[in-house]
Amino acid sequence: MVLRTDFDRLTTRVFDSATRSAGARLDAYREGDSFFIDIDLPGIDPASIDLTVDRKVLSVRAERKRAERDGVRYVVAERPMGPVSRQVFLSDSLDTDRLDARYDNGVLTLSIPVTEKAKPRKFEVAAA
Asked: Is the pLDDT of residue 81 over 90?
C-alpha cells in the first residue's frame, strides 16, 4: 500500500507539472546590505512583466509569446510559450518599499535592501 501511494504521488507530480504554467528559475543571494533575486525570463517583453509584493509575498508574472509572421509554418517549436510565473516568500527583514527591478539579457534582477533593524550591530560592553 505504501508503494502504491508513493507511485501515485510521483505520477501526479509528473503529469501535473506538464499541464501547469512554467515556473521561472531563480537564484537568490545576499551581498552586503542587499538581497538579490535573479529570475530567468528569456524572450520576455519587459513591458509584460507584472511584479507585485503583497504581505511579503513577491509575485512575478509574464507572458512569453511567439512572434506571428505571415507565411511562416513551424516545423519544430520546442521553446515554451505562454504564461510564466514565480512566487517568493520574503523575510520581514527586507525593505520591499525600496525594491529595485531591472531586466537585462533575459534576466530580471531584483535588489531589495535589508532593513536597518536586521543589519548586524556591534555593542560596547561596559566594565563594572
From this structure: no
Q: pTM value?
A: 0.71
Please count the other Cβ atoms lying within 10 Å of the Cβ belonging to residue 113: 19
User: How many other CB atoms are found less than 10 A from the CB of residue 103?
Assistant: 16
Give the model's confidence band at 18: pLDDT under 50 very low, under 70 low, under 90 confident, else very high. Answer: very low
CA neighbor of 65 nearest in space, from 50, 52, 84, 90: 84
Mean pLDDT, the chain, whole residue set? 82
Q: Which residues pair with 61 in a beta bridge?
A: 50, 85
Of 63, 60, 39, nearest to 51 by C-alpha is 60
Distance CA 111, CA 91 (A): 14
Q: Is 107 exposed, middle or buried (0-12, 13-18, 19+ CB in 10 A)?
A: middle
Q: Enumerate the domain spans of the chain.
A: 21-66+74-118
Q: Nearest CA to 83 among 7, 20, 5, 1? A: 20
Q: What CATH number does the domain located at 21-66+74-118 have?
A: 2.60.40.790
